[in-house]
Structure formats: C-alpha cells, structure tokens
C-alpha cells in the first residue's frame, strides 16, 4: 500500500511540475518547427509567425492550429478555455498585468475563434487575430 501511495504521489508531483512550468521560447520554436513540417509550410510562413505578421500568413493559417494542438489548448477543433487559461497563466507567471489581460480577452477571443464553423485552422487563426487586436502585447513576448 505504501508503494502505491509513493508511486501516485510521485506521479502527481511530476504532473503538477509539468503544468506549472513556464513555457520557454525554445519550446515554442520546437513546436513551430514541428508544425512547419506537419503542415508542410515554407520558411516565409514561419518567419511571419515569429514576427506575428498575420497578413502574410493567409496560406499558412493551419500552423496556429498545429501550435495550439501541440501545447494542448486546441482539441477536437475546439479551444479548451481551461487549458488556454492554464497555459497563459504559466506563460505570464511573472507578470500579473499580462495574466489579467489574458484572462480578460480569453472568453471574447474563444468566441471569435469558435465562430469558424469548426475548421481547426480558422478557429485557431481567428483566436490569434482576436488576441492581436485586443491585447497585442500578449503575442509579442514569444
């Protein structure tokens, strides 16, 4: 019985550490590289994503869906509010103002994203456009 409790406690500690770890730029770039390959996109799209030039990404909208799937906030073509909130709270754990701003725009931007008739690429792209319009400084950090 003690060994089961120890195993469970270790598993829980690992999960809590994973959930509370601040996402790094290196992780983001790794996801970006993976998504470039998965979505078969050229370097121009990746550069536009890095610079958040959304007008240059029309042909590569699916990269945002892939990125959101990789970090666990887009599931079955829907944005998980809980997972998105956890991700942004961890991302901005050192900046209360950005945490509040992320909380403020989450509902609005999830609604805008989900007005895309379930297309994963449109859902993700519309969410990013909404955040860029309403809280652009949240996107410039990555």
Question: Would you write up a description of this structure?
Answer:
By secondary structure, the protein is mostly helical. It has a single domain (22-138), classed as Orthogonal Bundle (Recoverin, domain 1), CATH 1.10.238.20. The chain has helices at 2-20, 25-39, 43-51, 62-71, 81-91, 96-114, 120-134; strands at residues 74-75, 78-79. It has a two-stranded antiparallel sheet. α6 (96-114) packs across α7. It is globular and about 35 Å long. The model is unreliable at 1-19 (pLDDT under 50).
How is the secondary structure organized here?
Blueprint: H1 2-20, H2 25-39, H3 43-51, H4 62-71, E1 74-75, E2 78-79, H5 81-91, H6 96-114, H7 120-134
List keywords for this structure.
disordered N terminus; two-stranded antiparallel sheet; Recoverin, domain 1
Pick out the low-confidence regions: 1-19
The average pLDDT is 79
SSE string: HHHHEEHHH
- The CATH architecture can be named as Orthogonal Bundle
In CATH, the topology is named: Recoverin, domain 1
Number of strands: 2
Structural class computed from helices and strand pairing: mainly alpha
Helix percent band? 55-70%
Strand order of the largest sheet: 1-2
Output the radius of gyration. 16 Å
Number of helices: 7
CATH superfamily: Pheromone/general odorant binding protein domain
- Tertiary shape: globular
Beta percentage is: under 5%
Number of individual domains: 1
Name of the level-1 CATH class: Mainly Alpha
| Intertermini distance | 45 Å
In short:
The chain has helices at residues 2-20, 25-39, 43-51, 62-71, 81-91, 96-114, 120-134, and strands at residues 74-75, 78-79.
